[in-house]
Design a protein that fits this description.
Distance between the termini: 94 Å
Oligomer: single chain
Structural class: alpha+beta
Radius of gyration: 27 Å
Number of strands: 17
Largest sheet: 7 strands, antiparallel
Strand order of the largest sheet: 1-2-3-4-5-6-7
Number of helices: 31
Length: about 675
């Protein structure tokens, strides 16, 4: 269909009406620019109207008098240990004031629509910060999004301190770095490390047409279409990678991903390696944005994509969940999806929840909801089969007792034991047990290898390989087996698996420096960096990991990577400067203190190294690794009794800390021999 010979005025009018009074001048740097999406609306009005109702359309907007009047009418909320007043300044603009008579912060943007909105306030040097306080659109009240943070409760309260990375003024709540790329279209962060400032720009507010469709430099000569003709039909992988670019918890190499690009050329996907992010069965524990869980699922591994369930314009489900019609569309017919036949199912097995009950819905068992940001329910996409019997053995959740909160895992296990095949439940248990042990620092290379040999889902294979790279290998025979597994995985067709193989040092690692996928080259480069910098010097991979670290230099993780690069090339002054930056960006994290202390000790500056570790102990006195590193620093300056005390504290915190135990035994022998 040809685009009508419409004037810019007409297109602007379409945009303004479609976006419900959203001003086009939200495009930073060019207030008069007509958004591309408005031009798409001229031909694709139906899709545009569907998009208008989506969460994508409301991912970011400017402050609006009508919509934002009530939240800023004098309410007060206590969050982060301070009282915040939501009011208006003398010009009538929304602002947030810390009471009593504290700093006043101007509100500059809005994220989200329902069930909550988060407001952005103006920070220093071009930064925008996301408030931890959010507006509940249903209850029409302010609340703290961290009120239900289980880790904070374990530490004795839900208050984040101003020194915390995750405080509303910290880098963890910085919109430019943490949020913007997925809330506006055509984003460029433009961070300047020397001035610690941002000049962020974007093309359109919200997730618009250009976030999902490749745009041509010039309209098509035949029909005026702005979508690049060669890319009008993305492959299934390209579609999925485009969704994953935002719906994944990942490490970002740059902000240049465009629809049609390969996900692994711009991101490293977060796998279930950390117990505070994922449960050992792959279910979400923290906010992980769907993609990892879906890749861990058999559906994801079989090639099912987001658009098999979600409408591409509105993001809504294409069929209802209430009567299971969405799931049974394939699972009741055995329909082939992307070359794989769906396993047949008629819904909840007899003897479990009645088919007409809430528990009779497929998603309640296989995609249970968890709340994030205190009040925002999200469905798990790992498609786990609930296994309450395993939950009685290790701490993993199951949807049975997530729903039946008045019952325990033993009750649920007894119910399922009578209605489900035993072998189906047991098949995944060895993998989950192996992953759980490795997450706790007690991993068995033998168990991980056994699970790897049986595993056929690429994301799980990658997870097991990554965990193998982190566990102790107790024997030469086992070490050879790990090397063989890694060498085999280095030839895997899946880039995730090859990247995980690169994390295990061996002859294959150097070869992977030339892998066609950037995430694999990154993994190989970081593995080789502290061991074989001579091999890395002058390679594309070294240039790429340096560029990625510079891209993330506004975050403590980026500063730490820059420090590691400086250490490898022998630039101690730059390394110390980057460790100091990391500490300033996240003063509550023990990691930069410890790594800085190690470097100072290597430079022959043990007193300074000890001071860094004493600073570290003040912020993390219960951390076993911190106490162990303190002991090493004390030994460097000859304080053996104090070192023994620190080692004992390390073992009190973590009885499984093998290095602390061995060092303490050696030190006690020395102390006993002294007069």
């Amino acid at each position: 269909m040809k685009r009508p010979r419409s004037t810019a005025v007409f297109l602007a009018a379409v945009f303004l009406v479609a976006c419900d009074d959203e001003p086009a001048e939200q495009v930073p740097g060019d207030p008069g620019q007509l958004p591309v999406s408005a031009q798409c609306a001229a031909c694709h009005a139906e899709q545009y109207r569907a998009w208008q109702t989506s969460d994508h359309a409301w991912a970011y907007r400017s402050v609006q008098e009508k919509r934002d009047r009530q939240p800023f009418s004098g309410q007060v909320l206590t969050a982060h240990g301070e009282r915040l007043l939501f009011t208006r300044d003398k010009n009538g603009s929304p602002c947030v004031q810390s009471l009593p008579k504290g700093r006043i912060e101007k509100v500059v943007g809005v994220v989200g629509r329902t069930p909550l909105r988060q407001y952005l306030v103006e920070g220093a040097n071009g930064a925008q910060q996301v408030l931890s306080a959010a507006w509940d659109t249903g209850k029409r009240e302010w609340f703290d999004v961290f009120a239900d943070d289980e880790r904070l409760r374990a530490q004795g309260g839900a208050q984040r301190k101003p020194s915390d990375w995750g405080h509303r003024l910290g880098r963890g709540m910085n919109w430019n770095s943490q949020c913007a790329r997925c809330h506006v279209s055509g984003f460029a962060k433009n961070y300047e490390m020397t001035t610690d400032s941002y000049r962020s720009r974007w093309k359109e507010p919200g997730v618009t047409c250009i976030s999902c469709h490749p745009v041509a430099d010039q309209p098509d000569a035949k029909d005026g279409c702005l979508v690049a003709r060669k890319s009008r039909r993305l492959s299934e992988k390209q579609v999925r990678d485009t969704c994953a670019s935002c719906h994944a918890r990942s490490e970002e190499f740059d902000d240049s991903f465009r629809p049609g690009d390969n996900f692994e050329d711009h991101f490293r996907l977060e796998l279930p390696l950390l117990s505070d992010v994922f449960w050992a069965n792959g279910m979400q524990r923290d906010e992980v944005f769907v993609e990892t869980g879906f890749r861990l699922s058999r559906m994801g591994a079989a090639g099912v994509t987001c658009l098999d369930c979600h409408d591409k314009a509105s993001g809504q489900l294409i069929l209802p969940l209430e009567d299971n019609s969405l799931c049974l569309r394939c699972h009741a017919t055995g329909e082939e999806v992307h070359g794989t036949k769906a396993p047949l199912s008629s819904g909840a097995p007899d003897g479990t929840c009645p088919k007409d009950s809430l528990g009779g819905r497929c998603v309640e068992c296989h995609m249970p909801e968890s709340k994030y940001m205190a009040r925002d329910p999200r469905r798990d996409h790992s498609m786990n089969i609930p296994d309450p019997e395993l939950s009685t053995q290790i701490p993993v959740p199951n949807s049975c007792t997530m729903c039946h909160r008045d019952r325990d895992d033993a009750w649920a296990a007894d119910v399922l034991r009578r209605v489900l095949p035993k072998q189906k439940m047991e098949a995944r248990r060895p993998r989950t047990r192996a992953v759980y042990a490795a997450m706790q620092g007690q991993g068995s290379a033998r168990d991980l290898l056994a699970a790897l040999e049986r595993e056929d889902v690429p994301a799980w294979r990658a997870t097991l390989l990554e965990l193998l790279a982190r566990v102790d290998i107790p024997s030469p025979i086992l070490s050879r087996a790990v090397q063989q597994a890694a060498a085999s995985a280095a030839a895997d067709p899946d880039a995730m698996v090859r990247a995980a193989a690169a994390a295990i040092p061996g002859p294959h690692t150097e070869k992977l420096l030339n892998d066609p996928v950037r995430a694999v080259r990154h993994a190989a480069a970081w593995t080789l960096l502290p061991r074989r910098y001579d091999v890395l010097r002058g390679t594309r991979a070294l240039t790429e990991i340096t560029a990625a670290a510079q891209h993330r230099a506004d975050q403590p993780s980026g500063a730490m990577q820059l420090a590691a690069l400086a250490v490898a090339r022998g630039d101690a002054q730059e390394a110390l400067a980057q460790y100091d930056r990391a500490i300033r960006l996240d003063p509550a994290s023990p990691v930069p203190y410890m790594d800085c202390a190690v470097l100072l000790a290597q430079l022959g500056r043990p007193v300074e190294a000890l001071q860094r570790m004493l600073d570290c102990v003040r912020i993390a006195p219960q951390n076993a690794e911190v106490q162990y590193r303190l002991a090493l620093a004390l030994l460097e300056v000859g304080q053996k009794p104090a070192a023994a005390t620190a080692l004992q504290r390390a073992l009190d915190s973590n009885p499984h800390h093998a290095a602390a135990r061995e060092t303490l035994m050696q030190l006690q022998t020395i102390l006993q021999q002294q007069p």
